[in-house]
Amino acid sequence: MSFVILLLLIGGGLYLFYMWNSSKKLEEKKVEDSAPYAKDELRIENVGPGGVIHLDNIGSDMEDFDVNVIAKHVYREGGDTWYELEGDRGTEKVWIELEEDDELEIAITLKKLKLSDINIGKSDLERIDDKESGQIIYEGQKYSYEDSGSAEFLRYGEEKNKVRFYYWDFEAEDGKHFIGVERWENKSYEVSYSEAIKTSQIKVYSV
What we know:
Layout: H1 2-34, E1 52-58, E2 63-77, E3 80-88, E4 93-100, E5 104-113, H2 122-131, E6 135-138, E7 141-154, E8 162-172, E9 177-184, E10 189-197, E11 202-206
Antiparallel strand pairs: 1-2, 1-11, 2-3, 2-7, 3-4, 4-5, 5-10, 6-7, 7-8, 8-9, 9-10
């Protein structure tokens, strides 16, 4: 009788283990199926150092060119994270910013500027920050204050390379062009003139 009970206990244990293992595999498959895309899929979100992409109809001259990605950097503010691809198009550097909000937002830096190029000074930026309102004019187009704040920049996505900076974002009336001002820890300022682009303008050759 005790031998029969032992067999029943072993059989029950094996059955419970089988059911637990099957349930675990099912949960893993659900998580896998719910992933929006595979990490090796040819998507701009997956591109990192060594990746190659092609861009169509960029800037006022509607240029087409290839970009070799040489670095992927991380920006962080509170719980928000966004990314910057640093690339080389052969003749000059290229910076592409990727931010996932309700949908993927992509912008490419067309020019690196100075404060003098946008006719604004440090005191003007402080005033805009206090009022949370203001405008700047660049090449005859008006850009309105959108946001400002303190964030972190992680070069190559590494914590050891983390630096803080303060930023001001301005958006043009067309909703497609942007000017960003950044003040770094060393008190230097960087100004970027950017243009929003669509995923249809991007072809990923390798990630």
